[in-house]
C-alpha cells in the first residue's frame, strides 16, 4: 500500500513538471484527494486466543457487518493470529453471493397471502410503521405475500440504509480477504441463518417487527455506539449493548444469540479435536457477556487470553 502511494505521488510530480502552474495545482489537489481516499480508520477489535488442555488452539475475533468508512485491521496481534491460524470460520462464507441470499430469502419467506403489515404491528406501533414506510417509499402492500420475520428484516434494512453504513466496509468481508487461500468454513451460511428467523413462532416474528419499529428512532445513534465500542475493542461496552434492541426480548435473545452460540461451540469443538487451529470471526455480540462464546468456552475448561 505504501509503495502504491509513493508511485502515485511520483507520477503526479512528473506530470506536474510539464504543466502550467494552474494545472500543477489541480494535479497536487488530486494527489491530496487520492491520499485521503486511501486512508483507512484503524480498528482494534477485541481478539482472544483460545488454548485447550490437549494443545488445542484457536482465535476469536469479534466482527461488525457494516461501517460508514473503510477500516484497517492491521496490528501485531491480528497479523500473528491470521498468520498462525490454519483456517477461517465465519457465520456466512459467501457474503458476496447476493443472488444466492436473495433466492434463499424468497424461498423461505414467500407465502400465498399474509395479513396486511399494519395488522401485524401493534396498534401502538402502527403510526411509526406508516411513517417509516412513507420515508422509505415502500408500499404497505409489498409485504402481503411475505412472512412477518422477512417484513421485519426488510424494514430494518431500510432503516439501516439511512445511517450511511456500508456492508462493503464490514469487518467480516475484510477478514475473508485477509485469510484468502486458507481453508474456509461457515457455522451457518445464508440459508441456515435465514431459517432461524423462519422458525420463529408468529408471535415472536411480530415481536421482531415491533423491535425494529421501536428502535428505528435511535437506530443511527445505537449503531454508532456499537461501532465505536467495536473499533476500540471495548468488551465491557459491547456486553452492555447485547441486551438492547432485538436482544432485549428474552425469546428473541434465546433464538438469535444463545442457541446459535451453543450450536457454534458444538461445531467448533470437533475442529479443535482434529488439530485445526482456526480464526473464528463472528459478530462481536456473540463473543461478550455471560452468554458469549468467551465465557462459555472458559466454562468448558479452555484458557481464553485477551490479545487486544
Automatic annotation (TrEMBL):
<dbReference type="InterPro" id="IPR002816">
    <property type="entry name" value="TraB/PrgY/GumN_fam"/>
</dbReference>
<protein>
    <submittedName>
        <fullName>TraB/GumN family protein</fullName>
    </submittedName>
</protein>
<dbReference type="InterPro" id="IPR047111">
    <property type="entry name" value="YbaP-like"/>
</dbReference>
<dbReference type="Pfam" id="PF01963">
    <property type="entry name" value="TraB_PrgY_gumN"/>
</dbReference>
Amino acid at each position: 500500500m505504501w509503495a502504491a502511494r509513493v508511485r502515485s505521488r511520483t507520477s503526479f510530480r512528473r506530470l506536474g513538471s510539464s504543466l502550467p502552474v494552474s494545472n500543477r495545482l489541480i494535479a497536487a489537489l488530486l494527489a491530496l484527494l487520492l491520499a485521503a481516499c486511501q486512508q483507512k480508520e484503524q480498528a482494534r477489535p477485541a481478539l482472544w486466543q483460545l488454548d485447550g488442555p490437549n494443545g488445542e488452539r484457536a482465535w476469536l475475533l469479534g466482527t461488525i457487518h457494516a461501517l460508514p468508512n473503510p477500516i484497517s485491521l492491521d496490528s501485531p496481534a491480528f497479523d500473528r493470529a491470521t498468520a498462525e491460524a490454519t483456517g477461517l470460520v465465519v457465520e456466512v462464507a459467501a457474503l458476496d453471493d447476493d443472488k444466492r441470499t436473495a433466492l434463499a430469502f424468497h424461498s423461505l419467506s414467500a407465502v400465498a397471502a399474509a395479513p396486511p403489515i399494519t395488522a401485524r404491528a401493534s396498534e401502538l406501533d402502527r403510526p411509526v410503521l406508516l411513517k417509516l414506510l412513507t420515508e422509505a417509499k415502500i408500499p404497505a402492500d409489498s409485504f402481503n405475500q411475505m412472512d412477518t420475520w422477512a417484513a421485519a428484516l426488510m424494514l430494518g434494512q431500510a432503516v439501516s440504509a439511512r445511517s450511511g453504513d456500508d456492508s462493503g466496509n464490514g469487518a467480516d468481508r475484510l477478514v475473508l480477504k485477509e485469510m484468502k487461500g486458507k481453508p474456509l468454513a461457515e457455522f451457518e451460511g445464508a440459508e441456515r441463518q435465514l431459517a432461524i428467523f423462519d422458525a420463529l413462532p408468529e408471535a415472536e416474528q411480530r415481536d421482531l417487527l415491533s423491535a425494529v419499529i421501536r428502535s428505528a428512532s435511535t437506530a443511527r445513534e445505537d449503531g454508532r455506539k456499537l461501532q465505536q465500542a467495536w473499533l476500540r475493542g471495548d468488551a465491557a461496552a459491547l456486553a452492555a449493548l447485547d441486551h438492547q434492541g432485538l436482544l432485549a426480548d428474552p425469546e428473541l435473545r434465546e433464538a438469535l444469540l444463545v442457541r446459535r452460540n451453543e450450536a457454534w461451540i458444538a461445531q467448533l469443538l470437533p475442529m479443535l479435536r482434529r488439530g485445526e487451529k482456526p480464526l473464528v470471526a463472528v459478530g462481536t455480540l456473540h463473543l461478550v457477556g455471560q452468554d458469549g462464546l468467551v465465557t462459555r468456552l472458559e466454562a468448558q475448561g479452555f484458557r481464553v487470553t485477551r490479545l487486544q
